[in-house]
């Protein structure tokens, strides 16, 4: 007998962190500007094809983008919002 606790919720968070690291290890350079990003706080995981445009939530559809106020992730998020 198993009840759902907050610990179960945290597992999905940890899985997301593992996936983030896995994709970063595959290519730690920003997919747009080519800058080397730093794990774990120097990048955001981005969907190449946004989910709302039919993109799949898979490793293959994910890429690393540098973050921060001048970062590519923010720039792409703005472009996606305009599109
Ligand atoms: Zn970048």
TrEMBL record:
Give start and end of each HNH nuclease domain: 18-74
Q: Name one Pfam family in it.
A: HNH
Transmembrane stretches, start-end: none
Superkingdom: Bacteria
Database matches in Gene3D superfamilies: 1.10.30.50
Would the keyword Protease turn up in this protein's UniProt record?
no
Q: Which InterPro entries match?
A: HNH, HNH_nuc
Q: Name one GO molecular function term.
A: endonuclease activity
Its keywords, alphabetically, are:
Endonuclease, Hydrolase, Nuclease
Q: What is this protein called?
A: HNH endonuclease family protein
Origin organism is Hydrocarboniphaga effusa AP103
> Top-down, what is the taxonomic lineage of the species of origin?
Bacteria, Pseudomonadati, Pseudomonadota, Gammaproteobacteria, Nevskiales
